[in-house]
């Protein structure tokens, strides 16, 4: 058996070449210094019809014009929730999605839990950025936003506002 293993390379034509004989050119014939375009993974991972927001690695999608509870239910059916916000950039991106001058606000997932009397996001995110409008009257448990601030001035049952759903992408 040992003789067979020693003689096997001779029979199948294997030879030990030196490093000098090795062709080091790339297999794809591209120069090693050629720039490679970055892959925008979020754009590829977002479901069709959703917009990628790279700052938080999440996808956004506008809802039809619905009352707040129905907008959240619409998002849940999509495997999402109404969006949480953590920066002005997120508000601006969501505002671009709804982009309707006659409807300058959109529902977000921020609401007042009437049992605990605290503000929460429907997706459980921490509240770390809320640009409330000045002289907030807080007449509603649901929250509308635009590109600059959030407000609770309108009732949750108003059917004339779109919402913005969000899903986080896993790494």
From TrEMBL:
It comes from the Eukaryota. PROSITE patterns: C_TYPE_LECTIN_2, PROKAR_LIPOPROTEIN. Residues 55-154 form the C-type lectin domain. SMART domains: CLECT. Gene3D superfamilies: Mannose-Binding Protein A, subunit A. InterPro entries: C-type_lectin-like (IPR001304), C-type_lectin-like/link_sf (IPR016186), C-type_lectin/matrix_domain (IPR050828), CTDL_fold (IPR016187). This is C-type lectin domain-containing protein. It comes from Panagrolaimus davidi.
């Amino acid at each position: 058996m040992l003789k067979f293993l020693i003689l096997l390379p001779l029979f199948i034509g294997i030879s030990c070449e030196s490093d000098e004989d090795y062709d080091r050119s790339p297999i794809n014939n591209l120069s090693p210094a050629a720039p490679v375009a970055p892959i925008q993974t979020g754009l590829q991972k977002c479901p069709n019809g959703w917009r990628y927001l790279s700052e938080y690695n999440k996808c956004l999608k506008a809802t039809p014009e619905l009352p707040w509870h129905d907008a959240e239910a619409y998002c849940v059916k999509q495997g999402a929730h109404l969006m949480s916000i953590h920066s002005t950039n997120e508000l601006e991106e969501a505002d671009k999605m709804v982009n309707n001058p006659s409807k300058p606000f959109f529902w977000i997932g921020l609401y007042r839990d009437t049992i605990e009397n605290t503000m929460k996001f429907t997706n459980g995110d921490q509240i770390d950025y809320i640009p409330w409008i000045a002289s907030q009257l807080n007449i509603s448990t649901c929250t509308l936003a635009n590109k600059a601030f959030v407000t609770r001035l309108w009732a949750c049952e108003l059917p004339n506002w779109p919402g913005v759903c969000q899903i986080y992408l896993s790494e």
